[in-house]
């Protein structure tokens, strides 16, 4: 079955491998997409995602190789009756997934995730050399 999102992601990944570390391949799916900042340091990455109205148990962080995915489900604060009478709706709700292919492999055992003031903070170290676990992990959010 043709999946245009996956095709676009493959194209972006191909572009990333051609253009080098200055290009960050990302993909997003769902009914809304959180704004994110990605900061690269010499030995690690720091990712900040705006997730207002969400709790730790509404979010997930998964890492495999150099791919990091953040997902979740933000509940609507409107009642069923209010949904019928919406004139303008700018606050997204529902499911989302935001994935990125980072330029360097990630140390899966070094990842830390925390949620404070509606901002999800993920910190993860880069793998030195070509070794590292490729099995993939889900991260507990503190």
TrEMBL record:
Highest taxon of source: Eukaryota
Ranges of residues in domain SHSP: 27-142
Family: Belongs to the small heat shock protein (HSP20) family.
SUPFAM superfamilies: HSP20-like chaperones
Organism annotation: Trypanosoma noyesi
Alphabetical list of PROSITE patterns matching this protein: SHSP
CDD domains (UniProt xref): ACD_sHsps-like (cd06464)
The entry's keywords: Stress response
Protein name, per record: Small heat shock protein 20
Gene assigned in the entry: HSP20
């Amino acid at each position: 079955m043709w999946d245009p999102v996956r095709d676009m992601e493959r194209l972006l990944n191909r572009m990333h491998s051609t253009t080098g570390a200055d290009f960050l391949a990302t993909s997003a799916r769902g009914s809304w997409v959180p704004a994110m900042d990605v900061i690269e340091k010499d030995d690690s990455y720091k990712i900040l995602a705006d997730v207002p109205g969400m709790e730790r148990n509404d979010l997930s962080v998964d890492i495999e190789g150099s791919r990091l995915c953040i997902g979740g489900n933000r509940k609507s604060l409107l009642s069923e009756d209010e949904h019928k009478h919406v004139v303008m709706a700018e606050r997204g709700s529902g499911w989302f997934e935001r994935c990125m292919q980072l330029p360097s492999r990630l140390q899966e055992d070094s990842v830390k995730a925390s949620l404070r003031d509606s901002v999800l903070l993920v910190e993860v170290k880069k793998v030195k050399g070509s070794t590292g676990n490729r099995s993939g992990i889900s991260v507990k959010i503190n």
